[in-house]
Amino acid sequence: MATGPGHATDSDGKTEGSRRTISLDPFTVAALRRLVEMIEGERDAFGTSYPDHGMLMCFEDGRRLHPDTVTSRFNRLVDQAGVRRIRLHDVRHTYATLARDLGVNSKIVTDRLGHANETVTQQIYTHPSTGNDRPAAEMIARLIAEALGTDEADLRTRWSHPLVTKLVTRAAKTALQIISGEPSCLVAGAGFEPATSGL
Asked: Could you tell me the pTM of the whole model?
């Protein structure tokens, strides 16, 4: 369904991939079956006045829901759940990101979302996940701990180690020089990235 100024019209979707067959999990199938049973009961109650449009989202008497009505109901559910407000369309982005984090094959995610290619899915629909980079952080921590001749647990309590203090001090001084626009003479020696002025 596509919306226009004050009205909504039927639509087959934006691309050829909009009409596709996908697998559904048992939880979703059970929820859809309950919804269909409810709709069939409403159709029986209203008799011949119930429109024969085959829509799953409609009022009790079969009148179609405007997409804005669906969005408003979604927003109320989000508020009731006490989570951050997102657009209804953003649920697709959430799905893509969760699937990526769980290791689902990128092509499968793209096919399920109906995208023309994987680039759209990867560049637009998946987003950084907080904490998903923890394994990378832990690998670097182990590397630093080995260089200092200690372990990760001991590293947490040894911020006063001369090498750590020197690195942190140099990093802070370099950052200040970059922010103030001054050239950094410590970057190369400390092994940090070259200073970039004007950021």
From this structure: 0.57
